[in-house]
Structures are given as C-alpha cells and as structure tokens.
Amino acid sequence: xxxxxxxxxELVMRSACSNTIxxxxxMRKAGLAPVGPPGLxxxxxxxxxxxxxxxxxxxxxxxxxxxxxxxxxxxxxPSAALAHRSLSAVAVQGQCRPMCQYDFLDVGxxxxxxxxxxxxxxxxxxxxxxxxxxxxxxxxxxxxxxxIIFECNPGPGVLTRTLLNAGAQRIVAxxxxxxxLHDLQELEGHLDGQLEVVxxxxxxxxxxxxxxxxxxxxxxxxxxxxxxISESSWTDDIPVKVVGIxxxxxxxxxxxxxxxxLFERMSVYRYGRVELNLxxxxxxxxxLVSRPGSMFNxxxxxxxxxxxxxxxxxxxxxxxxxxxxxxxxxxxxxxxxNDHLCLVRLRPxxxxxxxxxxxxxxxxxLMMVKQCLAKRKVKLIDRLNVWSPDSGxxxxxxxxxxxxxxxxxxFPEEYLQLFQLMDKSKEFTQSWLYEEVLENxxxxxxx
Amino acid sequence: xxxxxxCALAQSLSRRSLLEKCALRGYxxxxxxxxxxxxxxxxxxxxxxxxxxQRRNVSFVIPKTEAAKKRVLEQSQLFDVLDARxxxxxxxxxxxxxxxxxxxxxxxxxxxxxxxxRGPKSTSKEKIVxxxxxxxxxxxxQQSRWIEKLALEKNAKSKKSKSSSQVLPGTSHKTISxxxxxxxxxxxxxxxxxxxxxxxxxxxxxxxxxxxxxxxNVSKGKWKDSQNQHHGEKEQNLTDNDAHSKAMELAEVxxxxxxxxxxxxxxxxxxxxxxxxxxxxxxxxxxxxxxxYLEACVFAGDIERASHFLLSQHRVIRRRKLMNxxxxxxxxxxxxxxxxxxxxxRIFILLEEAGLKPNLGSYxxxxxxxxxxxxxxxxxxxxxxxxxxxxxxxxxxxxxxxxFRQDEKDMVLKAMRIVQxxxxxxxxxxxxxxxxxxxxxxxTQRNDHHYPKLDFTQEKLLDGFKRQLDVEQACxxxxxxxxxxxxxxxxxxxxxxxxxxxxxxxxxxxxxxLRETKTILASTNTKDYKFNLYPYLCVLEDREYVDIMIQSVxxxxxxxxxxxxxxxxxGNRVYTKxxxxxxxxxxxxxxxxxxxCSYTDLLAKDTKEYDxxxxxxxxxxxxxxxxxxxxxxGETSWPYIVTLDLGTCLVDMMVKSLKINSDILNxxxxxxxxxxxxxxxxxxxxRQIGFIKIHPILSQMQQEAMETKLTFDSSVMPMLxxxxxxxxxxxxxxxxxxxxxxxxxxGAVQHEALLEKCQNLxxxxxxxxxxxxxxWRINKPLLDIIISIFNDRGNDKLDVPPPLSEAPKAxxxxxxxxxxxxxxxxxxxxxxxxxxxxxxEMHSLRMDALYKLSIANHMRDDIFWFPxxxxxxxxxxxxxxxxxxxxxxxxxxxxxxxxxxxxxxxxLDWLKIHLVNLTGLKKRSSLQGRLEYANTIMEDILDSxxxxxxxxxxxxxxxxxxxxxxxxxxxxxxxxxxxPAQFISNFPVHQxxxxxxxxxxxxxxxxxIGATSVNLMPCDMPQDVYSGVxxxxxxxxxxxxxxxxKIAKVLDGFIxxxxxxxxxxxVVYGVTRYGGRLxxxxxxxxxxxxxxxxxxxxxxxxxxxxxxxxxxxFTGTREIQDWLTESAxxxxxxxxxVEWVTPLGLPVIxxxxxxxxxxxxxxxxxxxxxxxxxxxxxxxxxxxKNAFPPxxxxxxxxxxxxxxxxxxxSAGLTFVSVHDCFxxxxxxxxxxxxxxREQFVALHSQPILEDLSNFLLQKYCNRxxxxxxxxxxxxxxxxxxxxxxxxxxxxxxxxxxxxxxxxFS
Lengths: 447, 1305
Prior knowledge:
Chain A contains 17 helices and nine strands. By secondary structure, chain A is an alpha/beta fold. In chain A, helix 7 (178-190) links the parallel strand 3 and strand 4 (195-199).
C-alpha cells in the first residue's frame, strides 16, 4: 500500500526534522486537540458518545477512550462507515431529516456523475469515484470534530454525500459553477441543516479589485457572517476544515496567497485556525515539504507553510482517478515527479503567534522570507547587511549560525527566530524593509 | 600558424586513444560522428592544394541549403561513409589543428549566447552536411538526380490524374509547373514520401553510399510505390464523400492557387523574397553579437583582442558556422588600415576554411590595403582584380554597394589607378522605378509641384546646424528646469551642497570600481571564444561611463524601477555615445557638414527653386561628393542582450560602490556607510522582479534639494536645424545620434530585415521627411501662463499636475495599537497603500510635465524641428519623446508653426471654427452654425484672451482648454489687426477625421449606411457616430429600465455622447470588453453626480450595450472585420506570421509570437527576457487574429496620411499630422481638405481588399501540400477558400467623399 509506505517515509522525515520540538510544545499548550503525527491521537472531547457501538469500532477506527497510539494501518471498510453514519442518524433522530433512517445517501451512478463532471466548462478535477471519496472522507473524519466542513467545488456531489454518510454534522458546499448548484440545492432541501450550499468560489474569496463582487466571487466576511460563524481566537479549536482540490492553473499563487492571509490573519483566518485539506499536484507538494539545502525546491512558500502549519500527507492518488472536465495542455515534465494528486492537511499551529510574531508585524516577516528566498544561493549575511548595514554578523552569531550560510540553507524555524531578533532590534525598524512591506501587499490581494 | 601546428602535432599522438575513449564513455553517436567528421574534414583540407580547396568551397555553397533539408535521412548513409573515412584516415599521420582544438571545445561547450544553446545536435548535423557534400566532390550528380526524380514523379502524376476521372488531385502537380521552382518542390515531396517509407529509404540511402547508381534506381522504385499507395488512399477518400461537390471545390482551389501567379501583381516589386532559412535566422543574434564585439574591440583599438577573438570563433566549429564574410571583413579592414597585406591574405584563407566566399567588402579591404602601401606593384592589383572577376564580382558594384569609412574610398581608387590610371567608377543613379500605382504620377509628373521653402535664410539654418551638431556631439544637454525661478531656501541650499559633495565622492568611487572591474574582466580570458564585456567597457572614456551612471541615479524615481529597465537604459546611453564617437572616428562629421551645407540650398528661402524632393537632393549631393567616408556608416547596433548585460554590469557597480553616511541628515544616528541603491525583489503572483530602489535618505535629500538642472539625452530634445532626410532605412533624422526608422520592441529585428529587403520605400521616406520638415516655435505667452500655474499649485482640471506637496497625506497608524479592530487595521492599511500609490502617480505626472515644460522653456526663443519615424504599421511619430505635437492639450497649446502665413479671406473664419471644435460644443452643427456660434460668443473669446486667469474663464470649460485659450488669443489679435486677411498667423488649424477607423471600414465595404454615419456622404449637417451610438444605447437602456433592470434605472440621464465616445472610437481598433469597461468606468467616475457605488456595475452594463449597439449599426464593417480576423486566425494556425504590404509599399509584419524565454545571467540577478517577437517561434494565434483588423486599418490610415502629406508638400503647404488629425495654416485649410479627400478616394479606388487577398494567397498558399496529411490539407484548403473570398462590397459611390464637407472637419 503506497500510502503506508509514504506514511513511514513521512514519519522518518518528520522525526529527522526539528518539527518534533514544535509539535511537543503545541501539545502542551493546546491540550484539547492534540495532534502529532497524523492519526495517532484521538480527540478527547468527543461529542459523539453514542458512537460507542460495536459496529463502528472497525479496526483502527478511533473510539472513545481508546487513546491508542497505534498508527492507522488499515482503512475502515466502507460498510463500517455507512453503518456508522446510519447509527449516528438514528441516535440524533429528533433533529434529523425524515428519510435518514431508511437509507444512506446514494452517491448516484458513476457514469452519470462523470458525464456531469465532464460537462463543466472550466478545467477542473472532480472526485467521482465513490471509493476515492470514501478514502477522503475517512481522512477528514467528519464525524469526529466539531469543525464545520467547507467543501470546495463539490461538483456532482459524490464527496458531499460520502461525507454526510460518514456522519458529518455540518457541511458547507461552496460551488462556483452554477450548473451544479441546482442538484446540490435539491440535496440541501432533503436534509435538515447538515448541508448548506453557497454559490461561491473558495479560491476567489476576497478579490483585490474594487466594485461589488458577484457570486461566485465573495468576501469572506460576508460568507462567514451569512453562515453564522463568528471570529474566534487563534488558540481555539479548529473552526473550519476546508476540503477541496487546488485549482491547477495557479497552485503556487494560491498557496502563496493563503499563506499571506494566514500570517496576517486576514480573510478566512480571521475566524480562527482554518484547516486545509487540499489535493495538490505532487510536485507542488514536494516543494511544500522540501527542506533547506534543496536549492531548487526550497521556496518562500515552503518556508511560510512549514513555519505556520503542521503539514501532513494524508493520501496520494494518481491523476487518472480524477475526472478532468476539459483536456488542457499536457503537463510539462519538470524536475519533480508529478504523477499524483496529494491530499495534504495544512493545520495552522496554535502557537504561531507568540514570541513577538503577531498578525500586525507578520507582513514584515513575509517580506523578509520572500526577499531572502528570491535567490537561494546567496549569503544570508549579505541580505541582512543590505537591510541594516553591519548588523548581519551580529544577528547570525546571536543565532549561532555560520556567517557564510546561504539563504537556502536556513530552516523555517531559524527564519522565525531571525525575524524575532530583527523585530526587537531598533536598527531594523528603521530599515527600508519595513517600508516595503506595506507597498507590496497590495499585489497579493487579501484586503 | 606554424606554432599552432606544432602544438597540434603534440596532441596528435593521443588522437587515437582519444577517439576510443570517446566511444567507450558512451557518448552519443552524434558525438562520435562529430569527431570523425572533423577529422576527415581537416585531413582533406591539408591534402588538397589551395586551388582545389577553393573550388570545393565554392561548389558546396549552393547545395548547402538543400542538403540541410534532407540531412536527417541521410545521416545513416553518411555514417557509413564516415566510418570508411575514419579507417582510411587512421593510417594517415598528418594531423591538424582543428581537430585537436575542437576536442577541447567539445568538453566545455556551454556557450553563453542564444544560439549556442541550440545544442550540439544541430551543429554536428551541419558539420556532417558540409563534410558530406565536400566528400562527394561536387553536388552536380545529386542535383541531376533530383531533376530526374522530378520528371519521373511528374509522369506518374499525370498518368494518375488521367486515370482518376474528373477528380483533380489539386495540390502537388500544380506548383511544379513553374520551372524556377523545380528543385524545391521536389525536395519537399520527397520529404513527404520519406515519412511514409522511412525504413526503405534508410536502407536505400545506406546503399547509395557505396553504389550510387544502383541505389538510385531502387529509390526510384520505392518512391513510385509509395506514391501509388498514396493515391489509392486519396481516391478512396474522395469517392466516399460527395465526389461532385468536392471536385467543384477543388477546381476552385485550383483556380485560387493559380491566381496570384497569373496576375501581374503590383506588389511583386516589393514582395519580400521567401523568408530566410531558419538556420540563418537562428544565427542572426549570434552574428550580431560577434560583429558588435569585434567592432567594439576595433574601435577601442584593441586589435590584438579582436584578431584573437576572430580566430577563436573560427576555430570553434560550432561558432564558425554562424560566421559570415562580413565578420571576417571587419578584421580585414583593420589590417588594411595598417597596410598589412599578408594578414589580409591570411583572412582570405580563413574564409576559405570556413567555406565562405569573399564578397565585395573583402576585396575592397584588399584593394584599400594595396592602395595604402606605397610600393604596390600593378601585378598584385591585377591578380586581385582577376580573382575578383573569377568570383563574379565587379569593381563598379564595389563602389556603389560597399560602405566606405574614413579615406577608404580614396585608397581603393588609388589602388585601382595603379592598373588603370584613368579609372573612374561608374555609378548608377537610383532610378525612380517600381513605384506603386498610387504614387506613380506623383513621382513622374512634377510640373505642377511647388515644393515649399522654409522661411529662413541659409545662414540661419547653418547656424542651427552648428548648434545641433554641438549638442549631439556632447550627447547630453543640461537645462534649467522651470522650477528654477523659485526662491532658494536655506534648507534647499544646504541639501544641494550636500548632494554636490556626495556626487563628487560617488564619482571617485565609481571611477575606481569601473577600473577594478575592467582589470578583472581584461584578465579573465579562460575561454577565448566566450563573450566578455571588456571591449564594451573600453569604447568610451572611463569618465563618460561614470557620468552616465551618476545621471541615472538622478533620474531614478523614488519608487524605484525594475533592473531590466534601468539596465537597458544605461546600456542604450553607452551605445548612443559610442555610435556618435564612431562617427567621429570615421571622419563622418566633416563630410556631413559639407553635404548639409549644400543641402540647405534646397530649404532656405534665399536660394533658387528646386524641383526635387529633399531625399533626392541629399542622395544627389552624396553622389557628387565622392571622396571621404560614406554617411551610412553601416555600424552594427548592439543586440539587446548585450545592451542589457552591459547595463546590469554598470548597475552592479553602482549598487556596490555608491554609499552615503547614515548620519548625513540626522547626526544623532550612529554613523555607518549605507548603500544609496539597493537591489530587491517585488513579487507579482509567483513571478519575482528585480528592482533597484533609492535609499529613503537619498530620496529625501533629492526632494528637499529641489535641484533645478535637468540633464537630457540629446535625442530627447527637438532638433535645432531641419532633420537629415531619411534616405534609407539606416540613415536619417538626427545628425549623429542613431535613430530607428521603425520603432520596435527592444531586440526585435524582423521589421528591419523586412524593410531592408524592400526595394522601394521612397514614398514612405519622403512622407516622413515632409513631416519632419515642419519648423516650430513656442507660444510664449501661453507657456508663461502654464508655467505660472505649474509653479504655483498646479491644477488638475486644467491638466497641470500639482506638486507633491499637494498629495494627500498618508494616514499614520500603529499596527500594534490595540484600539483598532482587525478590520479597521485592514482598512487603514489599504488607505496607506492607496496614498502611496497616489503619491507615485502624482510624482510621475509631475515629472512628465516638468520635463515637457522645461524643454519648451529651454526652446522658447528657438526654432526647432521634430524628426519623425513610424511604428510597424506605418503610423508616424515625432522622435523626441517628451515634448512634441502629439502630446497632451498642454503641449499642443504651446506649439506654433515657425512660419507665419496671412489669414487670407477665409482664415479668420477657420480660426473661429477651429475654436468651436476645440470646445467640443457644437459637434452636430454645420460649419456655418459653428461660425455663427463663435460670433455670438466673441465677447467671451476676447475676455478669455485678455484676462485668461482673472476674467470669466470661458476657455476653462472647453474640451481642450489650453488650445482653446491659445486660439482665443490668436483670434483676438487677428480681429484687432487693421486687416485680418493680411494678419500673419502661425497658428495651426486642425481638421479631424470623424471616427477615422470606421471611415476606412465604410470605404472598404462601400457601405452606404456606414459611410453616411461617418460623413463619407455629403450631408448638410455633420453626422455624429458617437451620438448615434449613445442614442441607440439609451434606447436599450430605457427598455431595460422599463422591464425593471436596476442598473438601467440608476443610469437614467447619464448616458451621453462623452460616456460612449472613447469606446466607440476604439472598438474599430480592437478594444476588448475589458478595456471598454475601464474606459466607461473612467468616464462615469468623472461625472460627479453619478453614485460612485454603482460605477462598477454600470460600466459593465454599458459596455455590453455599446457593443451590441455598434453591431446593429455597422454590419458591413463587421463583415470585413470578421474576414480579416478569420484570415489571420487560419494563417497563424498554419504556422505563419501575418504579413501584408500597404498600398504605398510598406511591408508590415505582426510581431506576435509565442514567448521564448531567454536568460540573461549576471552576478547580480538573472533576468528572464520574455521574447515574443521571435519569428522562429510559432505565432501567437490569439494576438495575431485579434490584432490583424486594427493593425490593417491603421496601416490604411497611415497610408492615407502619407499620401496627403506628400501631395500637400507638392502643393507647398505646411502639413503635420497627429494620426487622423491634420494640421495646417488657416490660409491653406481648404487646400489641405481638398488634398485629403482626393487622396482618400485615390487610396480606396485601389482594390485594397483584393490586393490583400492576392498577396496573402501568394504568400501563404503557393506551396505544395503533402497529400499525406489529410487534415493539414483540409486546413490549407480552408485557408485558400477563405482568402479567396473577399467580402462583398456595397454600392456607395466613393467619389462622393470629395464633396463631403464633414469627412475631415
């Protein structure tokens, strides 16, 4: 099972990296939702007490009280998941849709779904295969947390139904294409509040331009207000889990935008630590998790995401398993393998904004990281000296870094420390770096 | 040479082992072949005598191109030959330099330039080809084989076509019919065949190597087979479909194919020959690089480096292939100057080695050298002449075609006279042949022509010439800015002093940095054949580089600029200065002065009348004055990448060495040396752009100092004497500063190549000369008023940008302040950003106005000229960029004709009508109506003229307030003069085409309704398209509002002519909905009453209505537009760039191609050049198709303008144009109007669309199509049918335009 192999690799890699320290401190601070390596812990505050049922405890399936540390080795069988959902529905019968006790939601004929997906006018990928949807649903664990699930561009709604079947309490389906809206709304009507459908493109939230955006473009505050979600503190539990496929035409641009928003707590991140579960192309994923020293792949967005989030690879699926609506240009061969779409979980760290980093000065951090990593094979000390002459050697020696270190060899954590040092020192606040920051955010949206 | 040979011998010992190693290491087969080919080539070269050598070289020049085409399939065959050859050679002891050296080169063959990156594959192939044709001795047997094959094929074809009843196989046998094309199609069809029977051919060819004749037969057989098979398939296809209709269509295709060749096309004279071979193009960049490198070396006197470089290029086979004879000639010239005949001989040998043929330039250098040497015997010269004759070159051609510098011509003559003492070169006069029918009469019948004279004495013109020469020799001009009048405060004085001190310091450190860089570069010669910036850093004095750099610091905007732009700018400055100095070195200045002096005879008022055009006069003068250098120096312009590289190098120096003390403004701070420039990145999406910024401390100092000197390049200033007439693509406009005839993107060369091939550009050149010949002066009273407002607080409404002190203050906020909520912070942040953006905008507007006004102020007492050039569609522009008559209302208002003419009987009326036109008030009134209106408001007019700033300010509400004010003043003085008809007026009166793009469309389609609405049809009242469209839009809106569309209701009462005007005007020029929306948004924002929150929605809504409205009104236009678009789409899809020729003979090519990325690597940053004009790349279909209709219409309106300008010149008028707005004196408006209408009719009486259709057919549809690719053939046929189907025209009578008052008004 390739997933397993990958998981092992990942574990090894993670233990090799300095992430462990961070994870530990994370656990200490936010004891409520311990996360470590994926799937190892189980939320203690489990709302679904009624799921204590023999049927639901499939192998490896987390159950209440069993805080087993065993890695998940096997997938829950589909039937177990179905049963699970059914039971939960029974359990909350009073507030449930009438038909739920009879049947699970039928995900529909696959051919029909494929046809509808293919009719989409934009180049998009769709999850149509029910098994794939189940795998994704298991990773999202819809029944477990109290987070709301935002499903981006569900299309024919295979994953939506699977998630509902798996026991999701509240799903918001954000669909940008009008042609899918009708069916989704119909489904919404059948249910009793578990599903809300909004004509909205998650990846076009908060446009830069002026004027009144029309659906599917929207401002995030409108979306969240309409949904009745209020702003929460950063250290609170995860309010929203986003599930979707990153648009292929501008993956990295999207990732950059989202990273900016996260650091400055703009856009959706005003409402707390929104967790992303996104399918992205393998090559972008590999860049996202690349480590210092890999000069070609180690980019600014790598540093920013690694600094701010726990990154877990949940699943890898070959491109062919997805239905592509339009045949665009064939993928160009790059240096990195790119045969899969990777489901990656980006869970923001609760302790991100401590030790001097705050959303208000984060823009300078962003600027610093971007300026440093524009070229990876330059000496860090040169960059520092440009920002504030003669201060480079002092900073580096304070951090215990060699004086001739290249910018591509510095770990994300070290960048954070460097920034914290810089932010404390007076010299840098007079540097032009602080002026630049304001000027350049305009290009990146996220008002 | 002998030393090298010894070296080579030493290496030869290891030859065998080297070869083996090569194979062992598993190099590709290519690589092995490379070694082999090199060796065999080298050995042969030694074994043959020089005589044989030469013959061989000559012979294989011809088959080279053909050979290149079939090289792929012949590689295998070749390999066998080579194998045999290797074996043979391994017994040979002799070894050669080339071999050894190339081995070395191959190891590290990472070239720097563009074409070297094409990789070793292609070059190795080329080598093989060369070798192969050499190995076969001559190419003759090969050629005859082709012909045989052709005949055979033809036979087969005719049989087939007979047997296949009425079905015509359409394509391939058609083109064979012309004898001239015989060889080419044969090769092509052969290629097609190869694809079918690749294997068999491969076999055949490998056999061919050993037993040529038998193999030949086999191949014939195979060929036949594949043909048969092929035809079978095709027939099948055809019978399956509806055979009859197919046949009809095919017949039509056939007809169309024949059409262009049958018709005696008027464009054939200027038709561009078949495009250059792709390899030739690929090498263009590199050739230019090599040339400019060598020339720079030679210029700097570094002859050792030059000859070393040439030799190293020559040695590297990959590079040698890119060289041409002209490159070798550069060095020959040098040796000729030094009188070293044996060195020239050596280069002749090199030429032969490279397989090149000496050309006129080579012999010219040789003769020059002989002429220079005091003891040259007639025998030597005769031998040279004989050889020249053998090469088929004539001495007379040499004198008429070669470029002579300095005293070269005299020396060559001297050499000639050693053998023929009374030799006199017979020069052919340029003939007036090949004019297009449009201007045939203009050039041949000149009896009625009265060319105007300038209103100045010869003395005055020559005085201007001297001053202009001084300016251009200095390359820069420093002038006082208009802000100089402001009082100097203590702080300003202090800052100025500080800055001056810093500058002195910077100068020193830059000088030092430059010298260090040069030392380093001079010694890094690890690989000789690589380019090095060193010679480019030697062409000027060190001090001059430093000055250029210091100047660029002063010009940097406070928000910085991208590295690419700054570097390009610096590089260009260096180049300009270099080419001016080059002209000096070539002793051109003296000659220029002489010719210019005689040339003024033609222009000045105190000399006799001439009946020749300025260009002709200049050419004649040049012809008469034979001795000395030629003025068309033939300097190579630097490739863009070299300019950029040099610029980056200079920027790097600046960033590294320019420093300032951090405590210079605030002594409390700790003292550090901080750099004043820093290199950083800005980010657009995932792209990152290198940026150079000024440190805030310096920009603060610069702002507070408010320095009053501005330094400009001399090319930015208007000229002080009449520009040099364009006599060819390369020569004209400024005296010394290089200028381009056609404006292009940096680095694009295809336009120039096209122009160079074009045989008759005279009409275009003459028209540009006419436009440039107009003398201007400043309207001083108006300039003073504008400057006073500018120096006060500016005025946005009057388009005088306010100073930065008027900029909105950025709200200051502390991001850490807990009192703000996050959304408030976001809002504040946004405001800060907006304020900064506004600030930058204001700065650039202010600087722009400052430049314009300062230049105008500097010129206030002078007479000046604007030299003109054109863009790739033929639209003309004045060369000086800031201050010219194309500019805004402000700049137009301060310009007057230098020459005055009496108003005459109708002049005053024209002035009044012009004034009303400028107000934009009475667009729908007749001329009489406008005149009456003007008479009713005379009081306001006079008041405006007398009290512009304190009176009723009537003029301020005009559309073009400043021009209106100027006109008011002119009218006031005229009416107050004793006799207005005698009043001498310098005031230009404009006549505007009413929606000129649509006029051309309407005329093309003879569309009656369209023609009426754009005033081609005589009417009592002017028709106004814009109002028409606005009306239509208003109707739509009312409907929508009635049916409850919210935005339609909001817009009630806001739809006016002004809102839609710009969009309607630009729709013909291809504006998209996106751009249209922006235009409308801008208009709506200008309406104060319009609710701002609706602007976005409303603009969206309106642009849709405008588009639908236009579609309903102009159906004929749309048909033509669609035909053009579709043609361009198919042409571009078939892989070609859209090209056409204007009725005046100007070739146009659309420079839109897929982008190619080229990396310019420097230590500071790699700059990625996105090159989209490269013909090698596939065309960008979307751009090609979208841009074709507007570009075509632009090429027509430019033609109309040029025709008008030519005929106005012959009628003695002053005429200038702003595209579709023509200017002249009030006296001559009527004459100009007549000419303008006549020329419009003349232009459109030509079968423009038919000619276009024929041209396109001939260009894109006269090649053989392989029937194998059925899909391709379908596409080809669709293109053919489309191009042949010119849109139907209506029945508008064109002659009526001549009677239409409001056509241009």
